[in-house]
Amino acid sequence: MFANPRFNIRSLDPLLKLEKEMVKEGLDFGDYFAILLFTIMQAYKKLNNMAKQREYLTKCAKYHK
Question: Of the candidates 28, 57, 31, which has an alpha carbon nearest to the alpha carbon of residue 42?
Answer without folding.
Answer: 57
